[in-house]
Amino acid sequence: MIHEMRIYHCAPGRLPALNARFQNITLTFWEKYGIKPVGFWTTLVGSSNQALTYLLEWESLAEREQKWNAFQSDPDWIAKRAETEAQAIIVERIENSFLVPTAYSPLR
């Protein structure tokens, strides 16, 4: 099992727009493509409160590549994403890491 941690650093004041896009649009597309979210977090205390961190679960990097690429190239997703950013950009920068659990990790 592989977990992908993604951190979206939002433009100032745009975190609510990102949360709305995930809740109302993105999750529907992920369901269509079989992308499995583990959880979503905002930062209570840290370097910025304008970030969304989330984890995705994958069986393998090959599964991730196939499903993520299909999602990213979906013309309906591309159109919906563009609509949400018509007035202003939402995400300024994305960080992602692929994590594998240790032998003693409760989440595997």
Description:
The structure is a single chain. This protein has a single domain (2-99), classed as 2-Layer Sandwich (Alpha-Beta Plaits), CATH 3.30.70. It is built from three helices and four strands, in the order E-H-E-E-H-H-E. The protein has helices at residues 15-33, 61-72, 75-84, and strands spanning 2-10, 36-42, 51-58, 91-99. A hairpin with an 8-residue loop joins strand 2 (36-42) and strand 3 (51-58). Helix 1 runs antiparallel to helix 3. The longest helix is centred in the first third of the chain and has 19 residues, at 15-33. The N and C termini lie close together (6 Å). 7% of the residues are buried. The model has no long low-confidence stretch (mean pLDDT 96).
Supply the CATH architecture.
2-Layer Sandwich
- The separation of the N and C termini measures 6 Å
Which CATH class is shown?
Answer: Alpha Beta
Stretches where pLDDT is under 50 for at least 5 consecutive residues are none
- Give average pLDDT, whole number: 96
Q: What does the overall shape look like? A: globular
Number of strands: 4
* Class derived from helix and strand content: alpha+beta
